[in-house]
Amino acid sequence: MAKDKRRVAQNQARKKERQAARKKQLKKQSAGGGRFAKLGCSRRELEHSPIHAVYVGDSVFTLGIGHAIIARKLPDGQIAAGVFLVDVYCLGIKDACLVVKSEYEFNDGIKTTLDTNDLKPVAPAYARKLIENSIAYARDLGFEPHPDFRDASVVLGDIDPAECTERFTFGHDGKPYYVSGPNHSEVTAQRIITHLNNRFGPDGFHYLVGIGDLGTEIAE
User: Fold this and answer.
1) Non-local CB neighbours of 36 within 8 Å, separated by 6+ positions
2) Are residues 164 and 140 in the same domain?
């Protein structure tokens, strides 16, 4: 009889634990909403999660375009990474996504990416300042960041860009330089060129159509 009572008490305790965990999860979902609810944490929690790794590609300034990756470790141990295609010549954040992987998957993917790309570790403040300054430059030209930037930008969180003293130069030879990629249709490319022509005149910018964007395995 004593064993039965103890078993009932244990079952009730487990039930209460499950109910408490469920309430906590629902509270997080309500606070985070949408994309972040699926991660089991709120946007605020993700913004303040520990930095796991930060990388920026050398091609950002040698070719005018390259990736910036900021990764944070979630409460459950998974890695949430914001992957940004930064176009310092014209469009700012040309593409963006938020990917979530196990720590092993992320680290293994980064090793492969480092072997095939020119990514290098940088300070978090450097990456955030680069991203935000590129957005400011593009907005001044009349372009907004990629729509998925809103979700991906959660990884910027509590990083202070003021801690970076680096000065970045945007455009090419003092002018905007638009380079199309596979994600831009002919219509989109023409629209951008027309906008630049109307804004700066035929001699106020450069453009090149038909060049592919850089790829990175970690974003897949």
Assistant:
1) 42, 43, 46, 154
2) yes
